[in-house]
User: Fold these one by one.
Assistant:
Number 1:
Amino acid sequence: MAAPQVAGTAALLLQANPKLTPNMVKAILMYTAQPLSGYNTFEQGAGQLNVEGAVKIAKLVRKDLTNSTPLGTPMLAGALPSPKTTVAGHTFTWSQAVIFDYTYVKGANLLAKYQKIYNTGTLISDGTLISDGTLISDGTLISDGVI
């Protein structure tokens, strides 16, 4: 059941901000996820989907960012909100991290400042990319694993 929920959330993010790149969508979903206690990163990924937090961030991402935007440019139109979400009276803290190739990268600058990995044509991969069809790129594919 996770796939349709994440797909629907990705659609909501793009509705809130059509200028998001696929990597921005992925990073926002991971950054705002709710970590599950008792599970490591390999068992849970970034954590449980947080629709409210993800949409909140998507609305703040500037719409004038391009592939030529310099590294470290402010990515949000406004301040990064408090990394917490309250649902049905339960408040939880976001993971505030993104997973890159089995590495857990944490920090506010993942969303506060533009990262070159968010460019169109760049693939964020957290493991192995397998295809039984065609893989096409008009940009950069980065992998420490197998493509």
Number 2:
Amino acid sequence: MKKTKKKINAAILIIGNEVLSGRTQDANVSFLSNWLNDNCGITVEEVRIIQDIEKKIILNVLDLSKKFNYVFTTGGIGPTHDDITSLSISRAFKARYEFNKEAYQILEKYYGKINFNDGRKKMAKMPNGSSLIYNPSSAAPGFKIKNIFCLPGVPSILQSMVGNLKIYLKNGLTTINKNFNLETVESYIAFDLEKLQNKFLKTVNIGSYPFFRLGKVGVSIVLSSQSKIQLNACEKKFIKMVKNKKIKLFKNN
């Protein structure tokens, strides 16, 4: 008998004072969300941004780990004093914070014994029982413990590592999106969109996003579903509504 895929959800926990201060612009949420959906059928349902404070990390990790199938953290696993994600997660799960033998060997080989200083050694410390997430860019691995996946905050490094997540993840249902740009305003279609959403309340999500570009006002409509049949049915009714209201469609770029 063929196994039916189930919905699998996830949360992203961004850890870093630099993101909250505005000094660093986060680029990881959109990348991770798209990658997880497109490659694994995993839907990101919540994102949190917190400071590099041990108590906050512990509380959020424990809370999210109970609510979601998977939790992905970014940031705080580097060599400096404020990189406390690994230590905090060790304490969250009451696991020993110690050198991972394989991670230590990887980093020692990468930097060489002479240049393998205490800061670099710190990147080999993680909760006891962790599995490594290999890093093809800068050697320092991320790690997995329970349903928590700890990744670096630097976008280019994170992006190089995500392929190594797949061995730990179960595939769920991929969300399919269809986009339409309408030459109208939201108030003109609000009632009709609400009626349409109510008809497909449990199977299709309808997003409405106003825009102004090239001197024209419009509304971008996004239909999202994990069922191709339901998405196509909703699309037909949506197109019929657009034609009945004599709304022009912009060409999608």
Number 3:
Amino acid sequence: MVIAGIAGSRISIEYGRPSKRGRVIWGTLVPWGRWWMPGADEGTTFTTSKDLTFGTLAVPAGDYTIYTQPSDGHFQLIINRETGLFHTVYRSERDLGRVQMKQTLTAAPVEQLTFAVEPSEGGGVLKMIWDDREYAAPFVVSR
């Protein structure tokens, strides 16, 4: 679980942490062009105590499930209104919306899937790091 205080908001991400274990992650274990829940077992839950905005996507305070839409060169974060699901269940009609995530390569492979929430100018950055990649989505906190 990750808990962060960003600009007066309490943000948490609760998730299972799958391991690389020598496997090829991107494009193989996590296939391109298909939705993927980043985590293991129970759904990955994202909670915010204040309204956030990722790009043009307004995310009201509350509980959500995080999914992604990975493809080679394009990676989207999906914020879904439905919670309490197993990681293999996805109902797109419950999506709040999608946000493009910026990809950077890591200096060394990261063995376990890792989420981070870091402060930045006017808000924060949600990061997901695994294997040789880091995906990031900046957000602002409503005042």
Number 4:
Amino acid sequence: MALVQRLTSRQHPIVKRFRRVAARKPGDTAVLLDGEHVIADALDAGVPLEAILTDGRPSAVARRARASGVNIVHGSAAVLDAASPVRTSSGIVAIAEWSPVPADAALAGTPAFAIGLVDVQDPGNVGSVIRAADALGATGVIALEQSADPGGWKALRGAMGSTFHLPVARGRLRETVAEARRRGLRVTATVASGGDAPGGLDLTQPRLVLLGSEGAGLSGAAIQDADDRITIPMRSGVNSLNVAVTAALILFEARRQREGRA
């Protein structure tokens, strides 16, 4: 893609390229990054960038990327609106090359503490779980079955760059559980009621913690097959939490135990 100093046409091939990447399909390796923070984290992690499109305002990230050979394109506000799927443009978007790792790579920590998202369909939730996993010391996140693509622009924006800091995978539930057990991980299912509180389980052990979809949760078969079940204690009248909040609470307790806090 040749360097273009400024675009005014919403139909320019570069704009169309950004649109195609935003509509990412299975198997695509290009991802769209929106905002300086996410782009800076990608640069920090050594993620290859194909191009950056900006509205022309001064940008330290754009200057840094250009110095490393990334194609920088300036566009009008209308061009940015056409190229970016975000309702209110941040003024800078990029195309990067990123793909999920194999599921076994997300189970390979020592000691492993991986999060498995089963049919979690909201990409914002997937991104928020990845952010919490990175912040609280998980060794990997696996988007299982029909979970939203962790490489979609909404998930990447929700993760705020954390996608590039820890292993993030896609996989199938049965194969992932089998691989976790082969590696000596205990499989833990989150359930709305009837499970152990996070503090009642030894979370220093290697584990794969499964969280289910926003509405239905985990299937009965997945719960039955688990080694342990975990429930977040809540006051009477409240019977569920957002999946990202649930993940963060479990991860916080795991971190507390693993750091030996009282």
